[in-house]
Structure formats: structure tokens, C-alpha cells
Amino acid sequence: MVSDNRQLQIKDIFSNQLLSCDQQTPLSEAVKMMRKRRVSSIFVTQQQQIVGIWTESDCVKLNFNDPDFAKAPIGTSMTSPVHDIQVDKTLSEATIKFHQLGIRHLLVKDQQQAPVGVVSLSDIVRNQGLDHYLHFRPIEDHYNRNVVILKATDCVSKVIEVMRLKRVTAVLVYNHELVEYGIITQRDIAYMLLNPDWRMPCWRLATYPMLQVSPKDSLFDAYRLMTSESIRHLVVKEPCSGKVIGLLPLKNVLTEIETAYCSELEKVLVQRDLALQKSEKNLYLANRIIDASLDGIMITRGDGEILQINPAFSELTGYQDYEVIGKNPSILSSGLHDQEYYDQMWAELRKNGVWQGEICNRKKSGEIYVEWLTIIAINEPYSDDVLYAAIFSDITERKNAEEKIARLAYFDELTALPNRRLFYDRLSMALASAHRDNHKLAVMFIDLDRFKEVNDSLGHSAGDELLVQVSERIKSLLNEGDTLARLGGDEFVVLLTEVKHISDVASFANKVLSKLSVAFELNELNVTATASLGAAVYPEDGLDSETLLKHADVAMYRSKEIGRNSFQLYKASMNARSLERLSMLSRFQYALEHDEFELYFQPLQCLASGRISSVECLLRWNDPNLGMISPVQFIPLAEELGLIIKLDQWVINKVCESMALWRRQGSDIRRIAINVSAQHLCQGELAITVANALNKHGLDGRFIELELTESSFISNLHEAKSELQKLKSLGVAIALDDFGTGYSALSYLTKLPIDTLKIDASFVAKIPDEYGNSEIVSAIIAMAKALNLQVVAEGVEKSEQRQFLQKLGCNIIQGYWFCKPLRADEWLRFYHAQKVTS
Fold this sequence. Notes:
Layout: H1 2-5, E1 20-22, H2 27-37, E2 41-46, E3 49-55, E4 84-86, H3 91-101, E5 105-109, E6 115-120, H4 121-126, E7 149-151, H5 156-166, E8 170-175, E9 180-185, H6 186-191, E10 212-213, H7 219-229, E11 233-237, E12 244-249, H8 250-292, E13 296-300, E14 306-309, H9 311-317, H10 321-324, H11 339-352, E15 354-362, E16 368-379, E17 386-394, H12 396-408, H13 420-437, E18 440-448, H14 451-458, H15 460-475, E19 483-488, E20 491-499, H16 502-516, E21 520-522, E22 525-527, E23 531-538, H17 545-561, E24 567-569, H18 573-593, E25 597-606, E26 612-623, E27 627-629, H19 631-641, H20 644-664, E28 672-675, H21 678-682, H22 686-697, E29 704-708, H23 717-729, E30 733-739, H24 747-751, E31 756-759, H25 761-764, H26 771-786, E32 790-793, H27 799-808, E33 812-813, H28 824-837
Parallel strand pairs: 1-2, 4-5, 7-8, 10-11, 23-24, 26-28, 28-29, 29-30, 30-31, 31-32, 32-33
Antiparallel strand pairs: 2-3, 5-6, 8-9, 11-12, 13-14, 13-17, 15-16, 16-17, 18-20, 18-23, 19-20, 21-22, 25-26, 25-33, 26-27
């Protein structure tokens, strides 16, 4: 297709067999040279400079009444000027030039403007991969019906006259004695210049017998026949009577391909212009961010030439841009690392596309410093060239501090905060002081919400940076005498020593939540991070360190249970909730083994037909003792226990079993959707699970759709793509769930085999009244249409939401407006009732 080949360059397809002759060369000699080289054109030179071109089509323009016309200099009948194109231009640029000038040959020049070859429109057409397009085009719409048919006894001069007057490239000749058709082309006339005899019967010049096709044959069949036989014309006959009704020149076939090519090229150019506008905006923003970054940034070519630095680079190294641009990064080398160090760095960089580590470099002043360096390989679009972005910061002081910390063993290495050991020491001292002076203190647990998603999607370096930034923000709120510690992972704890009233604790918690609500900048991305807070107060909630920490932890988990991004003070009743959670943990494995889980089904409505388009299965846990448990509670438990894949396997098997049963009962339900976990996809077992379930129940993969969120593949795109392709080979459809709520990257939509986008209910809930959300929904639907993706709007609960989505061209809706999730028997009754009413 055009989109795949538009970046091919002239150098990839042109012919370097450049045939030329002096402008004083007789026509007959020039044609002899063309015939020997089997080319249709020759360039004309004057004093070794190309000044014109002569092609086979020029032969019919000659004055054949002049007995010496074959000896005339070729310069008298050449076409001038000669249009050219550089060898590094793209096929798209050449095609535009062909159409603008109305020509079929271009002289190819190198970077020094020296002629190196020739390229024709046919060369481009044959390299654009559109011949499949001819399968759908019958010959009857493209052959020449008004074909000139001459008698075998007519002389050649009459053939030339007809070609000139009719402006045709070939004529047919009929031989009554042989009952045979022959053909004479411009090339035949051109070659007669070598031995002219214009009065001889034209049959002696004709080529026969001719290959034939019928009007119902496809242009592809004709194109393949012409290519294999190296001919340019086919006679068109009625299949029943055998009557000649026209002539199909290769030019007509190529013109049809050109039409398709130009049509697709036009679409590509429109897309390119839109992408260029967006690219310019992104480039402006990127440059602003680079300039504002506190980290030194250096961008180089693949050979090491420095292209760009930012102000922080100059601040950190002492070098200004004019001193380093165009030079090699070795200008910063300290000489402390051997060649093996750099070889290992480049080996990892080429393997993984990124390298991170500490390196010693030298500033302009000669001072050696330690920097934390990240090198990222950037593959330029539509090019084999690679750029490298080096992002670094001077960590000399931090290294010195880390050495002290390592010796003291009391501080966290990443954040420089007190660690668990130091925190316990300070808490013990604070408790002793509180007991002695009879005052209050508080212990507050702070746990980041969904921190694992940041690590999985942006990498551990970004996760570490987030922890550092979080710690800095919280530290800025502390009073003298308070302590912030990192106990491990994304878990922080605060010791507040100046607590006069319990309201002081709540006030501090609100300040923390407010401080963390501002987006964090990680790897040039703005990332939002929230936290769950829980606190216990001395002496009301405990008299010793262990009790206070345990109760603060219980309160923190209560914050997570009620929806995260919140704060809870410890209450005695929370112990019951904590015990309930432990009970759920112990019950989960038993529930999975004894079929306590149940599938609910929610139908989706096609907005065009009003009928049920498919159904999504939803998992419920009906515990005999704890009652109905929401997936919001037990899915994290399944992940925590390492049982999520086993739970997925149970769901997939049950869904296939249900779908197979419905099919046997005569149901025409098109598809059933299943939500699957990111862990299942990332571990490479999902395709095997689905294949086993399909085989077990004798079910075709086209009846199954898997719903995945962006977190399922964002951490390892290559492995996710491979697994999704295996699923597609089974016939399974892929839907991207909760679109727009994660770390969205539109490139996933083209890199991964996705069939459906599901617009998250949080966007749908506020349409059509809220401007921002309405525009987002409109943009998602428009983008999906352009990419030929189905769109499903989730959470549709109101008639006006449905009408708004239908107006935008949304395909399918899901939500309480149409039907809530139902048990299996309720769903089947609903389905059959819908069939009757439709």
C-alpha cells in the first residue's frame, strides 16, 4: 500500500542505464541504440550536457514525406527541456511531479546534480504494491472500444497517418486470408527507421497472433499476462462470438493503478499534514520542556556528533552550546573509565535501547564529577538513522551523602529519609517524652495508590523518581521535630510530635493530600499520584510503638477500601474490618476451588439496529458467610495471592462453556467479552489458556472478545504484541478497555491488533453537558472511525447520553439505560424477549 511504500526513494528503483546521444546523431542511429538496449527513450546531449529527450511516441510526429527524415539529426525532433529529480527524493514526490508535468520519464541526478539514470512512471507504479487493486476492476470498464482496424494490404504510411491523426499508440491489422489479427505499435514504427519502406503492406510489420482477453476478466489477469509475455497490448474479444471489440493497452492498466495510487497518496498527504501540525506543536512543547529541565540533556547523532544541548547542560558542565555542538561527547571524558566500560555501555544500549548508570565526567574547568546518566536510543520515523538522548545530573554530592548513609545505616538510600530502624528509635524517644510530659503524638502511614502501575508502565527509574518527589513534598510540610521515614516500597510513615488536638492530625493529612494532588513530572510526562493515609494517636489508640504502627496501618488500609486518595483516623471498629480482610484472604483459594464465583452478563446494544450486538461477562463472588463481594475487593486479593491467572482461566473456561451451550440452543449471539488481567498477558500464557478452552468446548475463536487495559501491555509492548497476534490467529477479537484513563499512547492503536475501543464510563457520565468530556468523547469516536475500530461507550445511563453518542456515530453502548448485569437465567430471558420485540 501507499502508506507502506511512500518513503521509498528514487535510488531504490531507478535504472542507472542512462542511454544518450549527441543532438547531431541521425534518428536511425539513435533508434538503433534504443533497440539494442531495449529502452523506450534516449536522452539528447549538446557538448556533453543533456538538452532533450526522444521517445518512441515521437516517431509519429516525423515528416515521412521527406525521403531523408531517418537521417535527420535527433535534435530537430526531441522534446525539451528535460525534467529531472534528485536520487534521494521519495516516490511520492516523483509521482506528484509526473502528474503536474504530464510526462512519463524523469532524468535522475545525484547530490552534485550529475545525471545518473532515468525513472519512469511505470517504474513507480510497479513498486507501489497496488497491483492487488486490479483484482476488483474488470477489463470492460477500461479497454479502448474505438480501435482502428486496417487491412493487411494497407501500406505502412497509412498506419503512421492513422496513428498521428487518431493519437493512438497502436492499430490492429486484419488478414482476411489467414483470418488473423495483428498489431502495429509505436515501437514497430520507430524500429522501421532502421530500414524504412513506407509503401510495403503493413501486415509484414504486424505482430501476430495476439493474446486475447474477455471483458469480464480482471485487469489483474491482463496485467499478469502482459508482464509474463513482455507485451504492451491485448486484444479484447466477446467470449461467445469471438468478435474483436477493442484493444487493452498496458497504459490503461497502469493508469488505473496510478488512479488508485494517487487516491491513496492524497489521503496520506492529508494525514501527513495533520501529523505535521501536531508534530510541530509537540516539538515546540518538547523543546520548552528540554530547556526548562534541571537535568542536563544532550542529543547526538548515531556517530556521536552533538546536535543539541539544554541550558542545564551548560550549567552542569560549563560548556556553552557553540563549544560542543558538532563535536563528540568524548570532550567530557574524565579518563577514569577503560574501553571495556564503554563497550558494555554501548552493548546494553544497542540491545535494550536505553542505558542508565553512574559515570565520571570532566567539566570545562577540569573538575571531575559523578553524574547519573540515562542514554535513550531514538529511532527516527521512516529512517534507519538513530539519535541518542543523554539525560544526566550531577550526583557528586549525593554520592558523598550515600557513602555516609551506608556507614550510618540509618537512612533510606533512594530518598535520604530515615529508614525503619531510625524511625523506631525516634518513635521510642518521642513516646518516652510524651509519657513524661503528658502530651499527644501521632503516627501516620502514607501509602501511594497504584504505585505498581507507574513502575510497570514508565519503568522503575520513573517509580524511584516519583518516590523522591513525594518524599520532598511531604518533607516540606513537616515541623521541626517531626520525622518522615520510608519503611520500604511506596510506604512512608510520619511521626508528628506537636499534636495538641486530633484536628491537627487531620489538618496535616489534608495538606499532604493537597500537596500530592499536583501532577509529578516523570521522564517528561505529567503523572498524577494519590495516596491513602491512616493515623493513630497516642495515647488514645495505643501506648507503645508496635500498637500505634499496627493501628495506623489498619486505618491506612481502611482509606484504600473506601476509594483511596483519602485519610482515616483509627477507630476500634477498623480492627474488625482488618480481620474481615484476613478472612477474605483465607477464603479466596477455597472459593476458587469450590465454584463460589458466578458469572453475570450485561448485553451491549448496537445503536444502528437497536439490537443486542454482544454481551460482556462480569465476575461476582457470593460467599456463604461474607455475602456478595465486589470485584473491587477480591481482584486485588487475587493479584496479591498470585491467583489472578487461575481466576482468569476459570472465567475463560466458563465463558466458552456458556457460549458453546447457547450456540447449540440456536442462539445467534455474535460475541461474548471477557476482562482479563495484565499479569495473564504479560506472562505469555493467555493465548494458551484461550486455545485450550476453545478446543475443550468446540468453540470458534470469533465468538470471544478479550478486554484489556493499557497497563496490560505498556510495560513490554513487544511481548504483548506477540501474545495478541497469537490470540488474533485464533480468531479472537481484542478490545481496549477504559480507553483514555491510563498512560495513553496513540501509537498502541496502530502497533497492536486492536479491534474495539471502549470509552471509559467516567467520560460518558458527563456528556453531553460538560464541554471537555464531550469533546474527548467526540475525538475518540472520530479517531476510532479513521482507524476502522469499533467504539463502545460504557456507563450509558440516560437517554440524552444515548442520543448524543448516536449522533456522533458511536457503534455500540453498554450501561443501565439498556440493561444492567444479569444472572445467566435472567440474561437469557432478556435476550429472548429482545429477539421477539425486534
